C-alpha cells in the first residue's frame, strides 16, 4: 500500500497548516453549519485539554475542509467513520455535501473585486499534488475542482527537494509568508501518491480598535502561580458581554470591521480555571454562548499575544473515531483511477496567530474620549490577565480557536 499525503493551513493575523499522509463520533449534524461548529467543539476537546500549560491555536475549518475533501474519495467503513468523526450530515450524499461546501466557501471566503482596505481578508485555497504515475478519479477530481476549488497538479515526488520546495512556496504565498517550510524534503519520496493541501488565511481590523497609547505593561498571571509583565491593551466600549454562571466564566465578543466575524473570549473566574472551563465546553456550540450575550459598557483589558503552534493530528482524529483511514484496511478506492489502495499515514497542522491593538497591521489613530462624570452602574469589567479561551468565528463556522495559557 503506497503513501499519500494531505496538507492543511490557516492564518489571521492568523494562519494554520495541516497535512494528511496516505499510504498504497458523536451525533450527526443536521446541516453543514452545525457540522462545522460541532466538529470544532469535538476537536478542541481532543487538542486543548492535554495542553493546558502551553498556548494553543488551530483552525477547525481548515482541518475539516481538508478531511472532507479526502472523505469524497473514501468508501465503506472508512467513509462511515469520517462522516461521523467530521459530523457530516448523515442524510446527505457526497455530491450534496460537496455542493454545501461550495456554498459555504462562496459565502464566507472573499477574494477579488469588492474588497477594500477595511474588508477582512478571509480566504481558503485547496490544491492536490498527485504522483505523476497516478491519475485522480474523474468523479473525485470534478467534485474537488467544482466544490472545493481544488487544482490537481502532477508531481514528481522522487525529486523530493524540488517537490517540497514547490509545495512550500505555494503555502507561503497563500498565507502571505506567515507559514514557511511546512514540508521537509524527506517527508516525500517516490512512493508518495498524493499531497492534499488546504490553506486558510485571515487578516482583519477590529471594529473598535484599541488605542496604542492605552497599552501598558501589566501582570499576566499563569495557572501555576507565576506572573509575567506583558503589554496589556485597554478599551472602554459598548460590547457584547455575559457572565456565564454555568461555565464559571465571563464572555466577551470583539467584532471585526466590515463583516460578521468576531473574536469570542471566554475568561474563567478563577486564575487556574482554564481546564475546568474547557471540560464544560464539550459539545457546546459557540453560537449558544454568543446568543446569551448582551450589550454593555465594558472596561476591557486584553494582552497582546502571538502564538505559533504545531500538532500531529493523528491521535486526536483516532480519538474522534476516525481510525480506519490510518489502517491497511482503509478504503479510498474512489480517489484514484483503478482503485489504488491508500491509507493515511499522518495528519499535521501548523498555525500562527498575532493579536494587537488594530487587529491587523493597520495604524491606530490617536484619540481622546470624553464622557460625563457620572457613575455608570451598568459598567462591566473584563480583565483577561490570566489564561483564557478564544475563537475567531461567525454563525457559520469556527475558523480559529485556542487558548492563551502563558505569556
Automatic annotation (TrEMBL):
What organism does the UniProt record list as the source?
Ceratitis capitata
| Family matches, as Pfam families | Serpin (PF00079)
Query: Any idea which GO molecular function terms this record carries?
Result: serine-type endopeptidase inhibitor activity
One GO CC term on file: extracellular space
Entry protein name = (Mediterranean fruit fly) hypothetical protein
Keywords tagged on the record:
Protease inhibitor, Serine protease inhibitor, Signal
Q: Which InterPro entries match?
A: Serpin_CS, Serpin_dom, Serpin_fam, Serpin_sf, Serpin_sf_1, Serpin_sf_2
Q: Does the keyword Acetylation apply?
A: no
Q: Which family does it belong to?
A: Belongs to the serpin family.
Amino acid at each position: 500500500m503506497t503513501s499519500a499525503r494531505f496538507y492543511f493551513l490557516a492564518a489571521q493575523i492568523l494562519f494554520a497548516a495541516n497535512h494528511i499522509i496516505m499510504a498504497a463520533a458523536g451525533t450527526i449534524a443536521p446541516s453543514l453549519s452545525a457540522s462545522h461548529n460541532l466538529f470544532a467543539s469535538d476537536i478542541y476537546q481532543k487538542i486543548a485539554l492535554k495542553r493546558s500549560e502551553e498556548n494553543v491555536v488551530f483552525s477547525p475549518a481548515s482541518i475539516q475542509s481538508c478531511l472532507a475533501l479526502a472523505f469524497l474519495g473514501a468508501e465503506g467503513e472508512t467513509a462511515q467513520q469520517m462522516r461521523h468523526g467530521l459530523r457530516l450530515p448523515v442524510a446527505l450524499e457526497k455530491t450534496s455535501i460537496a455542493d454545501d461546501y461550495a456554498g459555504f466557501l462562496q459565502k464566507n471566503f472573499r477574494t477579488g473585486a469588492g474588497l477594500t482596505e477595511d474588508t477582512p481578508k478571509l480566504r481558503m485555497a485547496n490544491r492536490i499534488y498527485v504522483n505523476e504515475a497516478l491519475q485522480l478519479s474523474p468523479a473525485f477530481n470534478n467534485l474537488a475542482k467544482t466544490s472545493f476549488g481544488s487544482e490537481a497538479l502532477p508531481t514528481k515526488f522522487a525529486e523530493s527537494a524540488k517537490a517540497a520546495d514547490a509545495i512550500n512556496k505555494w503555502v507561503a504565498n497563500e498565507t502571505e509568508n506567515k507559514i514557511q517550510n511546512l514540508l521537509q524534503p524527506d517527508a516525500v519520496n517516490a512512493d508518495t501518491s498524493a499531497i492534499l493541501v488546504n490553506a486558510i488565511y485571515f487578516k482583519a481590523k477590529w471594529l473598535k480598535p484599541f488605542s496604542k497609547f492605552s497599552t501598558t505593561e501589566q501582570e499576566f498571571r499563569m495557572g501555576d502561580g507565576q506572573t509575567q509583565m506583558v503589554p496589556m491593551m485597554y478599551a472602554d466600549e459598548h460590547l457584547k458581554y455575559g457572565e456565564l454562571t454555568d461555565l464559571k466564566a465571563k464572555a466577551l465578543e470583539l467584532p471585526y470591521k466590515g463583516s460578521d466575524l468576531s473574536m469570542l473570549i471566554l475568561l474563567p473566574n478563577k486564575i487556574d480555571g482554564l481546564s475546568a472551563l474547557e471540560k464544560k465546553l464539550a459539545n457546546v456550540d459557540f453560537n449558544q454562548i454568543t446568543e446569551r450575550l448582551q450589550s454593555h459598557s465594558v472596561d476591557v483589558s486584553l494582552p497582546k499575544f502571538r502564538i505559533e503552534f504545531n500538532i500531529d493530528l493523528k491521535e486526536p482524529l483516532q480519538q474522534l473515531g476516525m481510525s480506519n483511514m490510518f489502517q491497511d484496511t482503509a478504503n479510498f478506492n474512489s480517489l484514484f483511477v483503478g482503485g489504488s489502495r491508500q491509507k493515511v499515514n499522518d495528519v499535521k497542522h501548523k498555525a500562527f496567530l498575532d493579536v494587537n491593538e488594530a487587529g491587523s497591521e493597520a495604524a491606530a489613530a490617536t484619540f481622546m474620549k470624553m464622557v460625563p462624570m457620572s457613575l455608570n452602574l451598568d459598567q462591566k469589567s473584563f480583565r483577561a490577565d490570566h489564561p483564557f479561551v478564544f475563537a475567531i468565528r461567525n454563525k457559520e463556522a469556527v475558523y480559529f480557536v485556542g487558548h492563551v495559557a502563558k505569556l
